[in-house]
Amino acid sequence: MRPPAAPRAVPLSAIAAAVGGRLVGAEAMIGGVSSLDEAGAGDLAYVDGDRFIEAARASRASAFVVGGAIAEISRPQVVVSDPRYALCAWWSGSSPAPGGRAGSPPRSCGASTWKWARRLPSGPS
């Protein structure tokens, strides 16, 4: 029996375009979505306000969705007006993002929602 195929990574610039955001920093390939504390390399996490800047700095996420560019974070950021909504909309597929997942977003789509560290779907072939 073969192990499941790894999800296809999505360019961060494509995610930024899909949610109407602005990419700050270098391009990154994103293969998953996770909370700040559970993120790893290739994961995207959101920063929901200034009180989470230190957690973001300590996070291993490759990139962040933020409400405004955060100078204290040196990794790439997608700047949008509402980070939680943008990430949830893209995840649910209501945004035309490459690899967007069909169906409803998680109920709260808050930080606790990401504890299961969803992997991005492979998207269209």
Task: Describe the protein in words.
It is globular and about 40 Å long. It is built from three helices and seven strands; from the N terminus they run βαββββαββα. The strands form two sheets. It has a five-stranded mixed β-sheet with strand order 2-7-6-5-4. A two-stranded antiparallel ribbon has the order 1-3. It has one domain (10-114): MurE/MurF, N-terminal domain (Udp-n-acetylmuramoylalanyl-d-glutamate--2,6- Diaminopimelate Ligase, Chain: A, domain 1), CATH 3.40.1390.10. With 125 residues, it is an alpha/beta fold. The longest helix is centred in the C-terminal third of the chain and has 10 residues, at 83-92. Helix 2 (53-58) links the parallel strand 5 and strand 6. The two termini are 22 Å apart.
Spatial strand arrangement across the major sheet = 2-7-6-5-4
**Largest sheet at a glance?**
5 strands, mixed
How much of the sequence lies in strands comes to 15-25%
* Class from secondary-structure proportions: alpha/beta
Radius of gyration from CA coordinates: 13 Å
Q: What is the H level of CATH, i.e. the homologous superfamily?
A: MurE/MurF, N-terminal domain
- Give the % helix: 10-25%
Low-confidence stretches: 94-108, 110-125
Straight-line distance between termini: 22 Å
